[in-house]
Amino acid sequence: GLGAAVPAAARALPQSNVDAAINAAYHQYLPLTEGKNADYIPALAEVPSTYFGIALVGADGQIHSAGDVEQPFSIQSISKVFNMALVMKESGQQRIIDSVGVDATGQVFNSIEAVEQYRGKEMNPLVNPGAIATVGNIQGTDPDQIWAKIIGIHSDFAGRQLEVNQPVYQSEAATNQRNRAIGSLMSAYDRFAMDPAVATELYTRGCSINVTARDLAVMGATLAFGGRNPVTGKQVIDSSLVPGILAVMATAGLYDDSGKWLFKTGLPAKSGVGGGLMAVAPGKFGIGTFAPPLDEAGNSVRGQRAIIDIVNALHANPY
Ligand code: DON
């Protein structure tokens, strides 16, 4: 594309521009009170709505940030990206295509109609039915062993040992009847061999992993740089797996608003109902934000606004 015509020096990200872009977005949206915390998972309603953090990590692994970037919160749906990466790493990308699908459903993230419409096929790993089926496709039968792989790959992407937010986990586990139904339905359509109750439980635990905005920036940067964590230097997944992951993020990462998001940023991203948002500028940077109030589609209001501004300021839209 046109990128090839731009001299390398112009494409590098001058550090002062990055910090200026982050600070401008931070101060612009700090006072914004639009949106509402998720409350269908009771513990998420109790997280202070005022938290706001932005972090960006480029090729050198240096962290640029503003605000509450060390505040832990539950990763929620952003974990779906890393479970997809795990299944691809273990069993190849064809397994995801065959067992889960890679097409947007055009429906809300926990839609049962979407499952029925396609008889459990042609979902994708970033909506709940596909995400539970993705966990169900992780190899093994011992839940502890499977959990070790799930927390392990999340930790490798983040470059540090992550842990579960127990209050959020207990809160969701006590109220996730709908996800258990979805897991059973996907199992009935033969999308995976694992006991559906186990798959749903492991999926829920994965959603409760605590991360910070800084972690999301490092995790995004690992995808931006071909699966190699720029902070630790570890090759977490083979670079050949990255384009497929980013493709599903681009088409389904922000649910029914994925098109609007791509229109404004051109970047693959993934949101979580805990208020996290992770975006990937391939070859350039990963960005992570935390701001709990969500819009109608379930995506962080301030996170989206901040990333859109930063992407524009840094000319990071590839289109
Ligand atoms: O399964 C759920 O409903 C939550 N653990 C995750 C949903 C979620 O984050 C959707 N995101 N925007």
UniProtKB/TrEMBL annotation:
GO molecular function: glutaminase activity
Keyword Oxidoreductase attributed: no
EC category name: hydrolase
The entry's keywords: Acetylation, Hydrolase, Signal
EC number: 3.5.1.2
Annotated catalysed reactions: L-glutamine + H2O = L-glutamate + NH4(+)
Residues the record lists as binding substrate: 77, 128, 172, 179, 203, 255, 273
Keyword Disulfide bond annotated: no
InterPro entries per the UniProt record, alphabetical: Beta-lactam/transpept-like, Glutaminase, TAT_signal
GO BP annotation list: glutamate biosynthetic process; L-glutamine catabolic process
Domain of life of the organism encoding this protein: Bacteria
Classification via PANTHER family: GLUTAMINASE, GLUTAMINASE 1
Family: Belongs to the glutaminase family.
Quaternary structure, from the entry: Homotetramer.
HAMAP family xrefs: Glutaminase
Name of the protein described by the UniProt record: Glutaminase
Organism in which the protein naturally occurs: Brevundimonas lenta
Gene: glsA
